[in-house]
Amino acid sequence: MASNNKLFYLDVSIPFTIYDESLMPWADLSSIVGAINRTSSSAYIDKTSIFFIGGYYSVNSPSINKFDTATQQWSTPSISGSIPLSSNLKYAPCVSLGNKIYIYGGNASLSAMNKLNTSSLLWSILSYTITSSKTQGYSATLLNDSILYIGGTNQLAFNGWNCPNKTFNLMKEDISDVSLIALDILAFTWLVPNISNTGGPQQVLRWHSSTMIGAYVLIAFGYLFPTVDIRTTTSDIFLLDVSRVDNYRWVTSYEPDKTLQPIPSTLFTQPTTPQ
Predict the structure, then answer these.
(1) Does an H or E element contain 123, and which?
(2) What is the pLDDT of residues 134-155, one digit of tens each?
(3) Where are the domains of the chain?
C-alpha cells in the first residue's frame, strides 16, 4: 500500500472539458492535516461531513475518521456499539439511507450487515434471512428503500500470478471485453445501451470510479489491463452523455445545466449472449 493522503474534489458546478485532466476544475485539499492513509475503504457523505470507514490503514489508526467540508477539518468520531473488526471493513461499499450507513460483508467473507447510525455514532448488526457468498468487491446501489447488490467475489487478489486459477481464467476470458451494459431496474434485465460513437475505454478498465453527475456518467482512474499479465494505473477521464436514454454519446465537454430527456418506449437492444 503506497503512502498517499491526497484529498481532492472536482467542481461540477461549472463547465469543463476532459482534454487535459490537469486543466479540469480540481481542488486539492491535501495540505489539510489529519488525514489517515486508507485504501479499499468506504466513504459516506452526510450533509457537510464525509465519513471514511475501514480499509487498509496504519496500525493503531481509528477505523473511522471524518472530514467536515464546511470547516475543512479532520476529526475522529467516538464510536460505540457492536463495532465491526477493522479487518472486515475492506472492499465493501456502503449505502446510506437517512442518517444510517449499511455495509455488508467485507474482507473476512462474513455475511453480516453492519449498520452505523451517524447521529448516535452507534454500530449495530442487523439480523436477516438472505445472505450472499459474494461479500466483497461488489457494487451497492440504493433503490427506494432497498439495496441492490451486483457482482462481487468471496476473495480478492491484485496480481494475475497470485490469483486462484478460477479468477485468473475469468480474467483471461474477458480481457478484450470493453463493452458497457445497463440494468433495467423495472424489469430487472440486462441491456446493451445504444452508444452512437466511440471514445470510451479501449482497454479493460477495473477498480475505477463511475459517478452519475446530472446528465453524464463520469468514469475516472482505475487500472488498465492491456494483457492478462500486465496492469497499469491510469489517470484517464471518460464522460458519457446519457441525457437521451436511446442514444448515449461519449463526449469531452461537461455542461452542468444539461438535463435528462424523457424516456422513449424502446430503450436498448437485448444482449446477444448472456452477461
Answers:
(1) strand 122-126
(2) 777 777 788 777 888 777 776 5
(3) 159-275
> Which residue is it, cell 440486462?
190
Query: Which amino acid is residue 29, in one-letter code?
Result: L
Say if CB 136 and CB 109 are below 8 A apart. Answer: yes
pTM of the predicted protein model: 0.75
81 burial level (CB within 10 Å; 0-12, 13-18, 19+) = middle
d(CA 126, CA 124): 7
Summarised one tens digit per residue, pLDDT across range 79-122 is 898 887 766 777 777 888 888 888 887 765 567 788 889 889 99
Q: C-alpha grid cell for residue 223?
A: 487500472
Measured CA angle at 31 (ends 79, 53), to 5 deg: 25
DSSP structure class, residue 168? H
Q: Which residue has the cell 466483497?
A: 136
- Give dist(CA 240, CA 252) in Å, integer: 9
Q: Find where cell 474477458 sits.
A: 174
